[in-house]
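Bench notes, afternoon.
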Amino acid sequence: MRIFKTSAEIDLTDIDLSNVSENISNADKIFETVVNKIGEYLADIGINLILSLFLLIAGWKLINILSKKMKEGRIFGKIEPTARSFIRSALTIVLKILLVITIAAILGVPMTSMVAVISSCGLAIGLALQGSLSNIAGGFILTVFKPFVVGDYIKSGEFEGTVKAINIFYTKIITVDNKIIVIPNSKVSDSALIDYNAFDTRRVDIDITAAYSADSDDVKKALIDIANDNNNIMQDPAPVAVIKSFNDSAVAYQLRVWTKTENYWDVKFEVTEKIKKIFEERNIPIPFPQMDIHITKEYT
């Protein structure tokens, strides 16, 4: 059985060629229409793209200028240093994010899709940068609630020093030996801290020991005399000398005086040095650790 006919047996009279030229003409019109639509679309996209690029460059420069003005301007300069750097850096980041969203809208990106993308990116970034986000939150807490301000002497955990700056991620403090310690804001805000400059005055507590053989009234009088001779020690509240405890080898005394916060260390060192001198002048014995051993001999 033959499946195909030979070329000599094909009848070409059965093929209708009357609409071929018309179909070709329609195809040319369709192609021309498609090309025109593509050209119009590219023209619109090109205009939006140029406009978006211009807005991106201009907006970015404007935000940087605004950030610089906030740093140097008089109005921003009235804000205390604690909040100044944090607010400026946070506001700059927010403005740049809004600029990018605006440009995406100009380019025709649907806002619903944009919100979905931002939400997804925010979730991913949040999981990847949990520490950094907690530092930002910690910086916000330190700026708003102000447990301390720039210039205060604080102790946070094992670190202590004078606060130099509170940035968006870190708090910088300067130690007494002129070192800078950078502490994450999350650790500062989540841990207990001591602010030594919270008030204008501080009490200086100085512990001393004297021998049991020394008269307690003489010891306390010597301590009060030292306090009264120091011009940096306040008389209201008045200095107080008390017996603090009874130790194994000595009686523990404590001198309590009040002074201006900035004079704290000067008073502490000056009084400590003078205590030794006055004890020597008045023959008040300063004991050292000792142990008395009693041996009892039993006779049989």
